[in-house]
Amino acid sequence: MKRSIRGQAAIIGVGMSQVGKVPGKSALYLAADATKKAIQNAGIDKSEIDGVLTGMAFSSPFHRFSIALSEYLNIQPRFSNTLQVSGATTAASVNIAAAAVMGGLADTVLIAGGDSLLTGMSPDMSLRSMSESRDQQYEMPFGIPVANTFAMTAARHMKEYGTTAEHLAQVAVCHRNHAIQTPGAQMKTPITVDDVLNSKMVTTPYHKLDCSLISDGGAALIVTSAERARELDVEPIYILGGGEYYSHEHIFLAPSIVDTGAAHSSQKAYEMAGITPSELDVAGIYDCFTGTVIMMLEDLGFCKKGEGGPFVADGNITHGGTLPINTHGGLLSYAHTGISGALLHFVEMVNQLRGECGDRQVPDAKLSMVHTLGAGFATQASTVLGTKETL
Amino acid sequence: MSHSPFDTSKPLPVADGDSAEFWKALNEGVFLLQHCEDCGDVQYYQQAMCRICLSENVSRKPSSGKGVIYSYSVVHRAPGPAFKADVPYAVLLVQLDEGPKMISRLVESDLSLVDFDLPVEWVGVEVAEGVTLPCFRFAKS
Ligand SMILES: [Zn+2]
Question: ipTM, 2 decimals?
Fold first, then answer.
């Protein structure tokens, strides 16, 4: 029998701090504030948490962020780790939490993160800290910002498939429209394709408005066993499948810069969940840059390779389209709180599946996935989520 | 050696056991690649074993220094203060004639002409005392 985490664990609580510009709050506070809200949302006591997973935080000095956060909350977990697979950390954390619960390493796992990228450090510091995640010998000395690795993949995609700057801009416009519908989003001013194309060039082909935000904020999820979840007075959102893929460390050793490992991580997650991508009602897709979204729509199986641009242009990724994504506004327009940024996608997808999204609710959403990635497509992690009807 | 478009406060490569010989040779004007004597794979990223067959029977040979631009991005917003004076500049993903790809930077060339598939040739740029980076310019031929 194929081993699987399908339906073994569920997200029972979600929480977020205020996001955007939140001055005077530490990364630990922001993560702890989100945790308090997630505990409340789950209707449990913090004493039930016996597992804690986090990523690192750029504005925090703690290498063992998960341990520092546990201390901050006076929790003594029996299972903990500070994971580091860049942007992929969040879906990886959810998959690992489900496996840990299933394997008996923990009963109830807190997954949390927070960072103070906007006000806790200068813009130069945050850019520098992100670019320093590139190789010290073969990449950094050439002056390669983190955006640059993603920019080179988008540039090549444009050359090979005819993806245009307007296609990229449409991704930004769609995310902004979603953020405008979402209380608490960092960016609320409407934008047009022309606004994106006329915004300052950062690194070709990416303009400022093709790039995700720099934000303060935190988010948290609580994962427990399916049995425990059913005892609680909340609607559990089940973890139906998980998959990861790590294809390279250095961008120049990527097997391909237009076909990414997301195809592999998502395939594994879909197989475990027993679904095809066309069955999904709504999705959270890591949107560090506009071109990233276009490439992921292809590699995650929502359209054919090379057709991501037209797929976006035809209105498929918003309400009424084939697959509304990032209905909160994503990293591009809701907030990008660093490693924890994609926890916001999880919060939104859980809220969608619970039918709690108000004006931006995708009708009858039962099945969702979140795909997270990082380090110039080096790291990929996917998670399929569903309501009890999908079990 | 060309005049450096960089300044000394920039991050400099710190050689390790895998790469010391590579950086030393660059400083002497030689750009080395590693050739696996067992499976024939050629690698740019210096490591003491072949990443394909894991053989340690790997030898260093000078690269032709020729390749094409596989992809590129022109940086307008510098990654930190050290690169502010340099913008705009093109970061290149070069495909070497020997096979491997590498990250580098376009130098001594008209930035407005940078494009995919353009032939380029390597040029050593001394960025600090005793530290030379393998950069590229449009091929002269
Ligand atoms: Zn070999």
Answer: 0.94
